[in-house]
């Protein structure tokens, strides 16, 4: 009798309910096993472990349509209506995948925060300084754009062009974007000089990327399992990860401390526009004043922070964060680290793949150059008077060059720096939630709460009805499409995500990418060195990178 009951329970729980009753049963499966409780996620976990998440999810969408079930509790969507519009514009909460790997200093930051309120309270503090109008008219950005181009970046490219030397442009791009990002955050005197200091740059990039192979553990292995192993004395991470985290933590904290010191020494009044620690100052003063009114405003404590990818110096053994000035300072550090990482890596990648596509398409390079010569003044380098300051055209005029814009959009479409899934969870709604384009056979209703649901730029950017011939690099698609089609393309363009959690740094990224591309391609051509693009294909990950980690090119004068 007991055996019969057990068999009936197992049969119902593992077969009858998931395959015949569950509201998820109609959703097409990426693999036959996915409805089975507990084991249904093994297939996609294995794919992720093998770094194949983006590819297999894309294949599943091609085969089954815009809504696909990836695991017993997981769905992937690949459409606008009933897809990214409902989930991301609808403000569905982030999955705990984010705090598992993106908190720093033992405390949450804006990116890793899950809750609506704490997130919105922090985002409001920074929204203004990352707005397009602020960035375009900021004397700080203007001063630093001049200095970074004139003193560091253009002399480096000129030296490469003169010597004919081959160079890894991916490393150089990362250097420039890190210098640009940290100059905005901390002020140029308190920021990095990766462009000129190859030793620190190489050390940072090595340590930063050395942790990547272990990201699967912190992001996908359930916290209870990790904790269980830890209690048994099994460490899932090699010792060098902790060492790398400590170095990165100290290194980024030193810039925060320098910015703090600068502010204290001037008591808030800056003498040199470029030295103003704009983001640091805005966030620190904003958060402290918010906390004076409400000591827990913007604060989120998460139970599953571990020692993997997170920097955990500030983490107490009980994970109990006390809302005091020390915690507030750690949160400022946490956001600053997140922004410098998010800011340099993504923009650096975009630049690398832009160089790559331009090198492969000299005719696009020439057309881009022709557009850039219409700027007034042109960004001519080297200048006839080396001591004169670099006279840059207005940010607005660079921004409004149509072919430059189209080329960058096409790069971000075909080579999205964050191609991977952005997981959210289905909310609790009476009658369940719906996914899939309404009025089509792909519309599924009555879906329960707490399902992990994601979209990916990787698949959205390859929908052939929206982006015909999706694998080809074609900037003209952004210029020659009908108004209606352009609206569709913009809806599906997801390099920066969408909704309330959309990238806060997108205007900064576009501005710096446009500036650097304008400065370089007005004066130089790029060509791939012999074998320089071996391994350029993108790693299958949340944030991608070239498999080889580099792109070797030759720069030539025009
Ligand atoms: C080409 C460059 C960039 C790309 C492609 C990019 C892409 C993205 C994407 C796709 C998201 C949403 C991620 C998700 O929800 O999983 C995001 C969020 C974010 N990005 Fe960027 N990003 C870029 C540059 C920057 C820069 C320069 C910063 C510097 C401030 C930045 C800071 C952030 C932050 C803080 C968030 C979280 C926003 C929130 O939760 O409200 N990003 N970015």
Automatic annotation (TrEMBL):
* Domain of life, source organism: Eukaryota
Q: Name one Pfam family in it.
A: p450
Gene Ontology molecular function terms on file: heme binding; iron ion binding; monooxygenase activity; oxidoreductase activity, acting on paired donors, with incorporation or reduction of molecular oxygen
Keyword Oxidoreductase: yes or no? yes
Q: Which residues bind heme?
A: 503
- Matching InterPro entries, A to Z? Cyt_P450, Cyt_P450_CS, Cyt_P450_E_grp-IV, Cyt_P450_sf, Cytochrome_P450_monoxygenase
Q: Which UniProt keywords apply?
A: Heme, Iron, Metal-binding, Monooxygenase, Oxidoreductase
Tell me the cofactors it needs.
heme
What family does this chain come from, according to its entry?
Belongs to the cytochrome P450 family.
Q: What is this protein called?
A: Cytochrome P450
Q: Which species does the entry assign this protein to? A: Knufia fluminis
């Amino acid at each position: 009798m007991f055996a019969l009951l057990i068999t009936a329970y197992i049969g119902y729980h593992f077969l009858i309910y998931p395959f015949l009753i569950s509201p998820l049963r109609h959703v097409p499966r990426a693999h036959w096993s996915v409805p089975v409780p507990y084991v249904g996620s093994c297939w996609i976990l294995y794919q992720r472990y093998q770094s194949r998440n983006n590819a297999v999810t894309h294949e599943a969408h091609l085969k089954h349509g815009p809504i696909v079930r990836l695991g017993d509790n997981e769905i992937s969507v690949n459409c606008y209506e009933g897809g990214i519009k409902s989930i991301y514009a609808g403000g569905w909460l982030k999955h705990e995948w984010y705090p598992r790997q993106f908190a720093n200093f033992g405390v949450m930051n804006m990116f890793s925060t899950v809750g609506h309120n704490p997130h919105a309270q922090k985002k409001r503090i920074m929204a203004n300084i990352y707005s397009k109008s602020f960035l375009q008219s900021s004397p700080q950005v203007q001063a630093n754009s001049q200095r970074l181009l004139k003193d560091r970046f253009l002399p480096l490219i000129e030296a490469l062009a003169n010597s004919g030397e081959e160079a890894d442009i991916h490393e150089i791009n990362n250097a420039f974007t890190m210098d640009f990002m940290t100059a905005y955050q901390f002020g140029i005197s308190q920021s990095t000089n990766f462009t000129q200091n190859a030793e620190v740059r190489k050390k940072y990039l090595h340590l930063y990327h050395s942790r990547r192979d272990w990201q699967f553990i912190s992001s996908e292995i359930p916290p209870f399992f990790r904790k269980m192993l830890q209690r048994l004395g099994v460490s899932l991470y090699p010792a060098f990860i902790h060492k790398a985290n400590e170095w990165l933590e100290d290194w980024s904290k030193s810039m925060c401390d320098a910015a703090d010191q600068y502010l204290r020494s001037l008591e808030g009044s800056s003498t040199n526009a470029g030295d103003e620690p704009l983001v640091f100052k805005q966030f620190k003063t904003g958060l402290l004043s918010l906390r004076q009114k409400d000591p827990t405003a913007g604060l989120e404590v998460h139970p599953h922070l571990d020692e993997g990818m997170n920097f955990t110096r500030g983490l107490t053994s009980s994970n109990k964060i006390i809302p005091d000035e020390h915690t507030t300072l750690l949160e400022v550090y946490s956001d600053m680290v997140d922004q410098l990482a998010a800011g340099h890596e993504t923009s650096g990648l975009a630049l690398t793949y832009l160089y790559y596509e331009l090198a492969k398409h000299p005719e696009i390079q020439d057309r881009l150059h022709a557009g850039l010569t219409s700027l007034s003044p042109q960004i001519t380098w080297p200048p006839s008077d080396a001591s004169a300051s670099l006279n840059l055209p207005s940010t607005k005029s660079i921004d409004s060059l149509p072919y430059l814009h189209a080329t960058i959009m096409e790069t971000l479409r075909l080579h999205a720096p964050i191609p991977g899934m952005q997981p959210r969870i289905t909310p609790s709604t009476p009658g369940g939630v719906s996914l899939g384009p309404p009025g089509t056979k792909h519309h599924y209703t009555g879906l329960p709460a707490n399902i992990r649901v994601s979209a990916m730029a990787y698949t959205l950017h390859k929908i052939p009805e929206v982006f015909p011939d999706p694998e080809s690099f074609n900037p003209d698609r952004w210029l020659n499409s009908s108004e209606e089609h352009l609206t569709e393309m913009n809806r599906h363009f997801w390099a920066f995500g969408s909704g309330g959690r959309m990238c806060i740094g997108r205007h900064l990224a576009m501005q710096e990418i446009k500036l650097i591309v304008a400065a370089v391609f007005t004066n130089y051509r790029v060509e791939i060195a012999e074998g320089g693009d071996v391994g350029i294909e993108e790693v299958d990950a949340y944030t991608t990178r070239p498999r080889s980690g580099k792109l070797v090119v030759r720069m030539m004068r025009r």
